[in-house]
Amino acid sequence: MITVKQLNRFCLLATAPFVGLMIWMLASTMTISLPQPTYPDPVPNSEIKLVNELNGLLGNLDTAKQRATITAKSIKKSIALYRSTNESMIQIVKIASTQAGRPAKIYDRRITSKIGTPYSQIQSDNITAQLFKITAQNFKGYALKVKLKTDKSMKMVLGKDKVGEAETTLAAVKRYKAIAGVNAGGFADNRGQRYPLSTTMLNGKYVSQFEASYKDLFFVGMNKNMKLIGGKYSSQSQLDKQEPLFGASFVPVLMKSGVPQTIPQKWQVSPKRAPRTVVANYKDNQLLFIVTDGYNENGSSGATLQEMQILLSRFGAIDGYNLDGGGSSSLIFNGRVVNKPSDGRLRPLPTHFLFFK
Known about the structure:
Blueprint: H1 4-27, H2 45-115, E1 120-123, E2 127-135, E3 140-148, E4 154-158, H3 169-176, E5 180-183, E6 187-190, E7 193-196, E8 201-202, E9 205-206, E10 218-223, E11 228-231, H4 236-240, E12 244-250, E13 253-256, E14 259-260, H5 265-269, E15 276-281, E16 287-292, H6 305-314, E17 320-323, E18 331-333, E19 336-337, E20 351-355
Antiparallel strand pairs: 1-2, 2-3, 3-16, 4-20, 5-18, 5-20, 6-7, 8-9, 10-11, 10-12, 13-14, 13-17, 15-16, 15-17, 18-19
């Protein structure tokens, strides 16, 4: 049996540790700190400045974007206006070009109608060549109207490209692959050679030397601007001033500035009628070649020089020059001989006018 004394001892022993702990805590100076709530550190001023700058940049970018959008719209309107204006200007230029070309077209129609209707034509960026038939009371002939568009559309060549040599106009046309050809100046035979008569030029140079015009001789050819020049020249400097590119000589001058010239008595009857070749020009620098047929050179067939003057006046030509005729008259067009040579065949000649497509 547990006595009261034993029970008291047990309780004392059980509570002794707690009593001792309480005494130590009361006697100790230790303090207990409760944990404080944590807050973020204040933002530095430099970071605040950076943020403000970034915000400012973003604002500027928004403003720039708005301005760019407005500018883009303005540019689009300007482009549209430019295109519209450009199209309008193109139309104005086209209309102006058409209007500017109307007088030339009207003039061309007028002179063409005087010759007739072309029965053959070759046209390119280089040249326009129209071939007509002529039927007169005493002869038949052909007219070749040529518009030279570049400096490569016409040239004069020597027979076989050598002084003293000769070949037919057809042979020269084929050799140079030309679209048309007409006989050029007169010639003189010497020891089996056939030489161009008097002053003759090729590529801006004299074939032999300049010879002042004498009696009824003239020089006719093209200058560096592809315009017909011709007449009587008393000095080389007089001819050189006209910048001749090529040309040949013969007799006589038929027309100057639209006025028929007096034909020397000798050339009115020697022969009276014959096959003829004539070169002339128009106000717009187009060329006109007339070649007439005749079955001989004794004066009984072909055309007179006065009749050639009548044709030149009727066709509206300005200046006209008689080229070598008779058996020399040759007209080649599109690969064939157009006229009827009085010799029964083409005569070999020292000079030829050629035309190129």
